[in-house]
Design a protein that fits this description.
2 domains, 7-stranded mixed β-sheet, 9 strands
């Protein structure tokens, strides 16, 4: 049986969706040709959407994404004081990498932690493909699990994604507030490298639940509820984070040295 994303979409259908939202055209304008979309399944629990293209006689991986599903049951909301009448069904972006292996990093946008190549500028358009699939399947929203702080910030700044848990959203906004004096890459590195402490003096580590773009009225109503807003505000107000900038400089140097090996 042919593998399909979310049980419906084969490689040809996904390519058509990329074309419809302008992803393929944008890549062609960057000089990539012979664009192909494939689903890679060998050794993977879920199929990966892989978009590749040729430039200068070589073939490059441009986009790699893994999309699955999850269900949030009503008792999850009940424990947070909110009455949700039914289970919430999500499409989940477990992994996404968008890159231009042929371009250098611009001076005003330095490399983020573990980033090998700069982006292509098509991530928002690619997200529209996942949102369209989720909508067609009657999902309540699209979720991602940001692996690093900078991933969460990028999705948050899109004005589309909020953490499902209001307390987690409040803590995240406090981190954004208290680390705003650092470049985004350094802020992410600070959390990964143990350079940030919370109001109790304990190390603040990055860990993440679902960060969600709501589609259905039921899920949108939850994010607009007074209960969710109060949880965000209370956690934001009581959370404080301090960063050891000397430790960040030391960590950055260690990461740079390791990447040269």
């Amino acid at each position: 049986m042919e593998e399909r994303v979310l049980g419906r979409y084969d490689a040809a259908a996904i390519r058509d969706l990329f074309a419809a939202v302008g992803v393929l055209q944008a890549l062609e304008q960057k000089g990539f040709g012979e664009l192909t979309v494939a689903l890679q399944t060998v050794g993977r629990p879920l199929p990966h959407i892989v978009l590749s293209g040729r430039k200068g006689g070589a073939c490059y991986l441009l986009l790699d994404a893994c999309v699955g599903e999850a269900v949030i049951r009503p008792d999850w909301f009940e424990r947070r004081g909110y009455a949700m009448e039914r289970a919430i069904d999500l499409a989940v972006v477990h992994w996404v990498r968008e890159q231009d292996p042929t371009a250098p990093f611009p001076s005003d946008r330095p490399r983020l932690p573990l980033q090998r190549h700069p982006g292509l500028g098509v991530l928002r358009r690619a997200f529209r493909v996942v949102a369209q699939m989720a909508s067609e399947l009657g999902k309540d929203g699209v979720a991602n699990v940001p692996k690093f702080f900078h991933d969460g910030v990028i999705f948050f700044r899109s004005r589309l994604f909020l953490f499902m848990d209001g307390e987690e959203q409040g803590r995240f906004e406090a981190l954004v507030r208290d680390l705003r004096g650092l470049p985004l890459g350094d802020a992410s590195l600070a959390l990964a490298g143990g350079c940030v402490r919370d109001e109790r003096g304990e190390l603040a580590r990055w860990s993440s639940g679902y960060q969600v773009f709501p589609i259905s009225p039921s899920l949108s109503a939850y994010f607009h509820s007074d209960i969710y807003a109060a949880q965000v505000a209370a956690t934001l107000d009581r959370s404080r984070f301090l960063c050891d900038r000397v430790a960040v400089t030391r960590t950055r140097a260690l990461v740079a040295a390791a990447s040269e090996v």
